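It is time I had a proper look at our fold encoding. Can you supply me with one protein entry, sequence and fold together? It will help me judge whether the discrete encoding reads sensibly. Leave the record below and I will have a look:
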Amino acid sequence: MTQEYIEKILRAKVYDVASESALDYAPALSARYNNDIYLKREDLQSVFSFKLRGAYNKIASLTEQERSRGVIAASAGNHAQGVALSAKKLGIKALIVMPKTTPEIKINSVRARGAKVVLFGDAFDDAYIHAKKLAKEKHMTFVHPYDDPYVIAGQGTVAMEIFRQKTEDIEAIFVPVGGGGLISGIAVYAKFVRPNIKIIGVEPSDSNCLQQALKANKRVTLKQVGLFADGVAVRQIGKEPFRLARMFVDEVITVSTDEICAAIKDIFDDTRSVPEPAGALAVAGLKKYVDREQCRDKTLVAIESGANINFDRLRYVAERSQVGENKEILLAVKIPEQPGSFLAFCKLLGKRSITEFNYRYFNEHSAQIFVGISSNGDEADKTTIISQLGDNSFSVTDMTKNELAKEHIRYMVGGHAPCELAEVIYSLEFPERPGALLRFLTSLGSQWNISLFHYRNHGAAFGKVLIGVQINATQKSALQLCFDALGFQYVEETTNPAYQLFNGRQT
């Protein structure tokens, strides 16, 4: 079976549409981590992603009869563009089913490459089911984004190029993982050519379908997936990619949203290019691996897999990158409500820069502030700051890893309830499309009163909403059934300290 894949990769018809992407040395990252770090620049392909390799190889393999019927795919972005471009190159009609939440820029990009677009559902799973149904009805060939031998072989050409470009020993190749087509293609070729090389997958900690599958020794379906790195937001690893991954992938590393944002900045600093979150995953995992293994003077390669990022998301990335590098500490600090308190607080910090300070008067006894403080990136530095403040009678709560604090509360400081509201707090993922808010409010009707609402657009398919609703304990299950009916992912946050300290009822 391995031999068959090697032959498929060597014969893959990708270079009619793809170019041999550069393997760029990353000088700043290399110097900081004391290793030779290279970036495989798949973001420089014509569709700004590696996806056209597998898509073209699959479509080029079709018979004349299959070509005459056309191809169909489901995708929210990169695979859609790869299929559209490949079909246009081969003179084949293409139909792409995309979720209604897909940003207009991606829809227009697919249409510009000659494909017809059908918008269906709020998420990829909806679009996928509809595309499979249409494929059967219209007798079109479904081009799977990752679970197909020809697609896997097309992606495997990335490894073939790396070994041509870098003939010296390579310690490890770090690969972003969504459905598994890229890592399985790279792994099967790399292990055949250089058995001792490490192939390391990298997934977001909230979308780790391959890591969970390897742990369970079978494919699992995640109940929820994080949407920040939307290019890899997949609930279940592909069947064939999983089979290959079990044989050829050494390990999977998971990274946080903040670590991904820090990696985006790292890539920008070295290349002046801006990858999409999924495109920076491999660099985030590489950094974590080096910190863990303390390796030096090794050659490490990270796949920069794509650059289809919405401009609106850059603000969010910039906000989170400093935390991801451990260069910013976020704290909730209680200080006395009296003249000179802030001065005393700042004196304790010495020459450290304060990156953020949020405060609103509440009562005459004490003030709760939300503060960002620059750090040298060492965990011990944060411990020193917190201990220093605690030793001087300041009550401190670390908010650096509190997602609610970073997503919402830092923008709502001082919003304490004026009286006991009996409110329940939820964070929700809200679809970014016209009429979504009206649909949501209509479903709630007038049976419950909304006591708190905060929303920010981050340029993604789903927005983040924080909502407070006045209900009693017996009504909570009815409210959650309402959320379930809408298909929203939600988490109750009523006991979250970020909410309690800055927005809950204070006495």
